[in-house]
Amino acid sequence: MSLWSRISDALSALSAGEGLTAVFDKLRAPPERSVAFAIAVIALGAKMAKADGQVTRDEVTAFREVFHIAAKDEAGAARVFDLARTDVAGFEEYATRIHAMFSGERETLTDLLEGLFHIAMADGFYHPNEDAFLERVAAIFTVPDREFKALRARFVPDAVPDPYSVLGVAPDQPVEEIRLAWRKLVRENHPDAMMARGVPEEAVRLAEKRMIDINRAWEDIQSSAR
To answer: Is 133 within 8 Å of 91 (Cβ atoms)?
Structure first.
């Protein structure tokens, strides 16, 4: 029996009323643990795809790209995707199960988040509901907020970037060093200082926005340090 057939059978039991906990209990031990993880991943991907209220062909295609579904398995994968999409269990329950299984494997959880960002952006629009969905999943995975913001900045145009990246510092640097870096950037990018150096007006306008980002980054870092 193929992996996708085993996954489909497990989800059929779930949809027949057996319950998420019972299905996961059956799949807890290796090698069925991989099936349990696949079910959770598929469910999150399916629920992510409809977080903005609709499932587009682009999002389904992106889902298949992320999870590397072979052509011969597409029919089975489509059935699994549809079952997961209509499953009454909430995404938080699936995310919690994934975290419990892979709590010591940060890279695996981060890879999953990246895949979900790929699906979210497949239609070219990052919906507020998708952002709330991903932020909640990241919290369940205990992914630090700065890492989530850095991921979002990579995938989402105009997303708020990681504050440490904005200031060019590392998260483990002492706060006083970060403060000095912030003050240096403020001095260098202040519009008055730039105009005194003869910088073109267009560049000064860009610097005004940059100053907003620099100050916001420092405020975010201060808030997280409290």
So the answer is: yes
With contact defined as beta carbons under 8 Å apart, do 160 and 153 qualify?
yes
Angle at 141 between CA 81 and CA 128, to 5 degrees: 65
Read off the pLDDT of residues 27-85 as tens digits, 9 standing for 90 and up.
Answer: 665 656 667 667 777 778 878 877 766 666 676 676 666 666 667 777 767 777 777 77
Predicted TM-score (pTM) of the model is 0.64
Residues 10 and 23: beta-carbon distance below 8 Å: yes
Name residue 85's amino acid: R
Domain ranges of the chain: 3-160, 164-225
pLDDT digits (tens, 9 = 90+) for 128-156: 889 999 999 999 999 988 788 878 887 88
pLDDT at 56: 67
**Maximum Cα interatomic distance, the chain, rounded to a whole number of Å:** 73
CATH class of 3-160: mainly alpha
* Separation of alpha carbons 216 and 191, rounded Å: 17
Residue 78 CA to residue 73 CA, distance in Å, equals 9
Could you tell me how far CA 79 lies from the centroid of its own chain?
25
Per CATH, which fold does 164-225 belong to?
Answer: Helix Hairpins (1.10.287)
Instruction: Give the three-class secondary structure for 126.
Output: coil
